[in-house]
Each structure stands twice: as C-alpha cells, then as structure tokens.
Amino acid sequence: MQNAHANEPGVTKYLITIPQTDANDSTSVYMIEAYASQSALDSHIATPQVQALLTLFKTEPSLLAEPPKVYPLKPFTSFTRPEIDAHSDPYIVFGILTYKAGSTGKAAEGWKRVCVATEANEKGTLSYNVAENTEEERVLSTLEIYESKEYLWKVHAKSEAVSTNKKMNIGIREGLDLAFLRKVEGYLFK
Description:
This protein is α+β, with helices and mostly antiparallel strands. The chain is 33% helix and 34% strand. The chain has helices at 2-7, 38-45, 48-59, 104-121, 149-156, 160-169; strands at 11-19, 30-35, 73-80, 91-99, 125-133, 139-146, 173-187.
C-alpha cells in the first residue's frame, strides 16, 4: 500500500476492504483499485510486491477459496472529496446493477444526475462512482463511500435525486447486488 501511494502516481485508488461485521460473509476480500491509465496498471502489476503476491497465489492455491472475481470497470461519472482518507471508518457500498438489454444508456443518464446532485448537496457522501462493466453491456456498478451507515440511509437514500432515479429504473433494472464493506488498509484519494 505505502509503495503504491508513494511511488506509483498512476495508482489513484488502492484499498483493501472486507464485508461489514453484520454481513454473512467472513471470507471475502474486496480490492478497490483505480489507475490513471493502462500503463499505470501494467507498471503496478510489474512491481516486485505484486509479482510476489501473484506467485504466492499460484504456489499456494489453498489460500483462496475460489479464483478472484475481477470487475473491469470504466467510470462515466464520479467524484471523490479530498478529505476522504481522513475518515478511518467510512461506510463503503459496492453495487452491481443489471439492466435489460439496450437500457444501460438510459440508466447511465439517471446515475449521472444522481452523482451531480450528490456532490453538490451531500457533504457526508465522500465518494460516488458509477461505471460501466467493459465485459458485460447490461451491467453498471457503483462504488459509494459515506461518512457513516446512518448517512447513507438517512440522507442519501432519501434524497430527491435517488428517488427520481429509482422511478426512472422501474421496468429496466433486472438485478441489484450490494456489498457493504469496511476499510482495512489503503487510500482512496491521491
């Protein structure tokens, strides 16, 4: 973590998270990583630290219960407040949203409006990111980071922008899978 923060300017987010303590999942680890470019990702993977970890996973396959799931995402709307890393225990939500074929464009427009309104009106929303899955055209993902669980449910979830977006998604959204996470180590702003 420290190496990426100090020596890899193209690694813009690098965070280890695990499910919240009230989740029924005690074995998953979620890595949140963002890179300024493909070359930044390639350089990161080539570092001795990452190569050692990849070698460990190959030589000790029992360390992982199953192969890692990788979500190749291309953000289309986002913001991150500079003070995010001052919060030691932010409430993190990773969402996978599945839409009917041909409807992700309409959904994306709604999500853009939510992101703009959230940045302008919700100081307790520390970061809001919506991305398309580059391998599954019907899937969008969100990475939402709040100062607390209470802020998510009492402020953000009740906002006019979220309410309007929910109404827009009636009839086009087919699935929603949310993971509620907590920070273990790393950074979200550089």
